[in-house]
Each structure stands twice: as C-alpha cells, then as structure tokens.
Design goal:
By secondary structure, the protein is α/β, with parallel strands linked by helices. The chain folds into two domains: 88 residues, Ribosomal protein L30/S12 (60s Ribosomal Protein L30, Chain: A), CATH 3.30.1330.30; 153 residues, SPOUT methyltransferase, trefoil knot domain (Alpha/beta knot), CATH 3.40.1280. It has eleven helices and eleven strands. The N and C termini lie far apart (48 Å).
Length: 258
C-alpha cells in the first residue's frame, strides 16, 4: 500500500492526532520510531498499521518482518508532514491501547500509582517507567492528567506503558470509591508531609499519589491520604518524576527487592 498525498484523510488524521497528543477518532494512538514500535511488539497493546518511507522500510526490514500489520509506504516529504518529532526516523504506527481494570491496577504486587492532575509528559512518562522497573501493579491517571496518546509521554515511558495496566481520565470520586473497597493504604507525596518516606509502611498493599506541578495534591486526595515527605537539603521539593521514583524504590526495598 502506498500513500503519496499530504491530503490523504488518514494521514491528515494522523497529523492532527500526533500534533495534539490525542488518539484518532477510532481510539488508535500514534507511536513514532523503531524503539517504541519494537517495545509494542508482544505487549498488551496491538499494532494495527505501520507507516514508513522506502528508505526506512529497508533500514528496519528485520523489525517490520516481525509485525503482523499492514505496511504503508509514504514518500519522505509526505512523512515529514505527519511526524511530530523534529528529527523523524521515518517510521510510525497506529496501535490500539489496552486499558486496565480496577482489579488489575489494585492487584498483583498491590502497589499502585495515581497521577492526580499531573500534566508534564516527561515527568509522567518517567513515573510509568519507574513503576514498571520497581514492580508496581498499575497506574491511574486522574482526569486533568497528561493523555496516554501524548508523544513525549510515550517516549518518556520507553515502552513501559505498553506493559503496565493503566486507567486514564478517572474522576477523583470514582478512584476514591474504588480505593475504599480495598485494604490498601493511601500515601500522598508532599513536601510538608508529616511522615518520612522511610517510615511509611510501603511493604503493605498501598497506593502512592503524585500531584500536579502547579497545584500539588488535590484537596480530595489530601483529605483521604497520609502525607509522606522525602527529606531534602536546600531544595524545597523534588519534581514528581524524581519523587515518585524514589518512593517506588523505597517500596521495592521494603519488599525485599534485589
């Protein structure tokens, strides 16, 4: 299959979705580059369609041979019009995400992450990658948080989002109602928290909450959670990506992770 016009409706939809960090109308998400494509292989997500220039098709022939999806060849000038990255690797795909369920994100290791309106895609992606690295069971993105389809977020996760159960656009009231049905402790990472991170009982089933860069933890979460702080010197607070990564490592340490 060849697509040669920048006015092709599908390519125009891809261009809009990639530029705005949103899924296509049918729910498919744009991922770019060979690394993310390789990570998506065999993950929870499914690869529907691949787009590449002739040069890229040849360069990544071994990777493309492993993918059971339609390949569309696109001229370089046309591909440049749909890519969201400045230095494109001339390879992108449409994939169908696999969202999780409450039983999944609260199950398994029983160490869940909640992004409470966190919008920075780099921080959010870092948290997802750390969540997989340190054995979290899943992640919940409260409404107002970054969208899963955001390209920078996807790149920052380095593929972890393809394997980690997640839910997005969840209302705070819905999260709190479902959390209250579990035995899990709820800890909010806050600079002024009364409990030191190392004193929190993270070996027990628990949920860690990270707030937005601008507003921190929402009042509803503050009222329900125990505030935990990470002691620092001279620096008032850490960004959410660093704070969550430290908290996840401490949880893994308390659980005997090696």
């Amino acid at each position: 299959m060849q697509l040669t016009s920048t006015k092709n409706p599908l390519l125009q939809n891809i261009r809009y979705a990639a530029a705005h960090g949103r899924p296509l109308e049918d729910g498919r998400i744009v991922i770019e580059g060979p690394h993310l494509l390789a990570e998506a292989l065999g993950s929870r997500w499914s690869i529907d369609q691949v787009f590449a220039t002739p040069k890229s098709s040849h360069r990544h022939s071994e990777l493309l041979a492993r993918i059971d999806a339609e390949l569309a060849e696109v001229p370089e000038r046309v591909f440049a019009s749909i890519a969201s990255t400045e230095t494109t690797q001339q390879l992108l795909a449409l994939v169908r995400p696999k969202t999780g369920a409450w039983e999944e994100v609260f199950g398994g290791a029983k160490l869940a992450l909640v992004l409470d309106g966190l919008q920075d895609p780099g921080n959010a992606g870092t948290i997802v990658r750390s969540a997989e690295a340190f054995g979290a069971s899943g992640i919940i993105l409260i409404e107002g948080s970054v969208h899963i389809a955001n390209g920078k977020f996807l790149r920052a996760t380095a593929g972890s989002i393809f394997r980690l159960p997640y839910m997005e656009g969840v209302k705070r009231e819905e999260f709190l109602a479902n959390w209250r049905r579990t035995p899990m402790r709820l800890y909010a990472l806050a600079a002024g928290g009364a409990t030191l991170l190392t004193q929190a009982k993270l070996a027990a089933p628990c949920v860690l909450v990270a707030g937005s860069e601008a507003h921190g933890i929402s009042p509803a979460m503050q009222a329900a959670a125990e505030a935990v702080r990470i002691p620092t010197r001279q620096v008032e607070s850490l960004n959410a990506g660093v704070a969550c990564s430290l908290a996840l490592f401490e949880a893994a340490r308390q659980r005997g992770f090696e």
